[in-house]
Amino acid sequence: MNVEETRLRTFTDWPVNAAVDAARIAKAGFYYTGHALEVQCFLCGVKISDWNYGDQAIARHRLAEPTCPFVQNPSSTCNVHLIPINNFGLASSSSTETSQDNNIVECQSTNPCQNKEPQKEYRTVSQRLQSFINWPISSIVSPEKLAKAGFYYLQQDDEVQCTYCGGVLKKWELGDDPEKKHKDTFPDCDFYLHQDGINKQKNSLYLTNVKLMPGATSNLSDLGIQIHTTPKKPQCATYEGRLSTFRGWPANIRQTPEILA
Ligand SMILES: [Zn+2]
Ligand SMILES: [Zn+2]
């Protein structure tokens, strides 16, 4: 019943002459119990059965149960908004009862109806990156780092959630490393077990393909690999050895073998 469309479908026998429109009641978190005008909140369970003309469904909800999370902050619940479709008569696209920008609101780990499956929409870095619209603290922690560390933005303060373990992190400070914080806080997260495996595989594949080719030195030094070059003529590695090659060096040349060697 956290899905608005499902709630709306319970109103098939809702009296057509009822004072308040079914679409607005469903949008305010209620489903129809089937008795007279009685509806119930999917989250707090509060029931309302007396509806009057001009009633604001969400206002009635707030009045009946002020502590209901749906009333206090719908985006923090697992409610799934109905995406208004113009030809679908029941859906009201002109509703101003909620200020939600998003049609779909993700579940947080603290919700009783949390979905334990990884969030399919945020499986890739670029998908997660797209969630960081309006990220308020780019100068403190960059969306790129957070997305790479498995997080997407919950569109609330600086709260981010891991796609895989569902762990929520917030209150970011300058110098925080999302990857480290993720590993430290949620050490059992599948994301890192998975990533570590990939990295190990990549490294071993890469190293088996390394060949000491001429011109490849800059790449290798980038990798921290030092090329050890052995003398082409080992017998010339010492001063005495090199000096001995100057036998027959013309005596009238200014550069003496001692200088050159
Ligand atoms: Zn409620
Ligand atoms: Zn995680």
From TrEMBL:
<dbReference type="GO" id="GO:0005634">
    <property type="term" value="C:nucleus"/>
</dbReference>
<dbReference type="Pfam" id="PF00653">
    <property type="entry name" value="BIR"/>
</dbReference>
<dbReference type="GO" id="GO:0051726">
    <property type="term" value="P:regulation of cell cycle"/>
</dbReference>
<dbReference type="InterPro" id="IPR050784">
    <property type="entry name" value="IAP"/>
</dbReference>
<protein>
    <submittedName>
        <fullName>Uncharacterized protein</fullName>
    </submittedName>
</protein>
<dbReference type="InterPro" id="IPR001370">
    <property type="entry name" value="BIR_rpt"/>
</dbReference>
<dbReference type="GO" id="GO:0005737">
    <property type="term" value="C:cytoplasm"/>
</dbReference>
